[in-house]
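lol so apparently i was supposed to do this last week
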Amino acid sequence: MPISIARVPTERPARYLKQLIAHLGHKATTTMTGTARGTVTTGAGSCALTATPLGLRLVATAADEESLARIQDVVARHLVRFAAQEELIVEWAAPVAGGDLEPVSPLVDEYLLNHCTPADEVLHDLATSTREGAPRSAGMQVAHDEGVLLTMLTKLVGARFAVEVGTFTGYSTLCIARGLAADGRVLTCDTSEEWTALAHPAWEQAGVADRIDLKLAPAIETLRALPADAVIDIAFIDADKEGYRAYYEEIVRRLRPGGLVVLDNVFLGGRVLDPAYQEADHVAMRELNDFIAGDERVESVMLPVRDGVTLARRR
Ligand SMILES: C[S@@+](CC[C@H](N)C(=O)[O-])C[C@H]1O[C@@H](n2cnc3c(N)ncnc32)[C@H](O)[C@@H]1O
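anyway here it is w/ S-adenosylmethionine bound
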């Protein structure tokens, strides 16, 4: 499903946004959130409009390129008319499909990776042994900057009990274990004996093996078996996407106030933005993202870190 973006420089973004939403409200479905965001949906497709300090940002989506051109035209024509004295220029970027979106460009990714606390020898060796021991699956490992983020978040919440869903070869587990308070523990869940076998030497070498409890079983069973009054300080969910919602529920109900759930891959490579992707994991992730945004038990923020990371903090 094609998506196209236009950035329209203007000094009156909120005014034109309000005018456009009010005017098109008579012939299309419109919504307005506060004074800076609105949407227009017509039979052709929809367009989200955001007033920013630099102007208006438009994101148009439609089922095909012909319909995209129609919704683009409706929005652009009205904007240009409302801003007659300014001579607005609406230039749409070439359409992309949701699955091709790169939330952060590879160039920026590289820069980020080179400007965080570097990997030490243990992490470096674990990345190498993962590439050699599980070559086809090594891409599942968190990138190093995300690992640093996990260590930092674990320290920031002063975690004594952490839970991880999705151990793989133990890189993220090690990052969490390193952030724990002196007497802290991390329970990590996976089903693969083969992959997790690669983790043990690294955990030993890093001197954190005694803080890590690896449970080899379907994660939902492990989580449900936790005492109802267990107190989780931080959790990292990075496993089968269809299971996320159930993991989230088991974790949130045990999360202490101020505790954090960290969810990985919430963009699914951009596919969550594109309704054309309707496989079970796309639908599940889209629904979960919507659910968390409205979940009153937590305050949440979605970060464009790698493939998208949501932080949900228990109120
Ligand atoms: C993306 S990888 C985790 C990567 C890991 N966090 C890291 O940084 O190296 C996903 C892991 O989830 C595990 N997994 C998938 N479904 C699972 C389930 N139902 N229960 C427990 N683990 C599961 C897989 O075996 C795999 O190791």
